[in-house]
Specification:
With 93 residues, this protein is mainly α.
Length: 93
């Protein structure tokens, strides 16, 4: 049983994300019918996240901690550069 669980977790992320998208969609509809809009919004976010994860898995894109750190470092540098070159009177009236 442990081998099956490990193989599903390691080798079939796409299957897991598809099942999670299905559950998120189902719970989203049930929460909207019950007027629980905050929970429906949360399930919408989970569904979108799982869809992105699904597509990344199909495309072969792997994200590691080092790549995320590099992305945030570059994003911070670009943000600081844009803010430092923005004129003080921006936006103009």
């Amino acid at each position: 049983m442990g081998t099956i669980a490990a193989s599903v977790m390691l080798m079939r992320w796409e299957l897991l994300s598809a099942v999670m998208m299905f559950f998120a969609s189902t719970f989203n509809v049930k929460c909207r019918k019950a007027s629980r809009n905050a929970m429906a919004f949360m399930f919408t976010g989970i569904g979108i996240g799982m869809a992105c994860w699904f597509v990344m898995g199909l495309a072969g894109i792997r994200v590691s901690a080092a790549e995320l750190q590099n992305f945030w470092h570059i994003t911070k540098d670009v943000f600081i550069q844009v803010i430092s070159t923005t004129p003080p009177e921006y936006p103009l009236p």
